[in-house]
Amino acid sequence: MLPKDRKIYFVFLISLILTGLAVFDGTPLFVALATIMFPIIASYGLIVKFKIFPGVIFATILWALSIFVRDLLIGSLTFETVKTVSVKLSTVIIFVVVYLFDKIRRGERKSAEQ
């Protein structure tokens, strides 16, 4: 059975193109699949399943981990990679704060309406 959501096909096509470009540039196929194709498709799934805010938070964590795993698998893990991953994960804190602020604001609005 094919999924009824046609957006997944577009996401799959983009992930195939980006994975193909990475392989063409010299990235091993397994590394490209594990760190480009899988995170793109999984991020889309997370955003669809958990809606915008929680999905974006989970997708950001997934992308930070994929950056770390990519450099680990290739053997080029450096302090710069660790800094990049930590900056990427620090955006998760911002997303969480915005998400909690939005929940509190909506709760106050519902209380005022009652």
UniProtKB/TrEMBL annotation:
The chain crosses the membrane at residues 7-24, 30-48, 55-79, 85-101. The keyword Transmembrane applies. Keywords: Membrane, Transmembrane, Transmembrane helix. This is Permease. It comes from Thermococcus sibiricus.
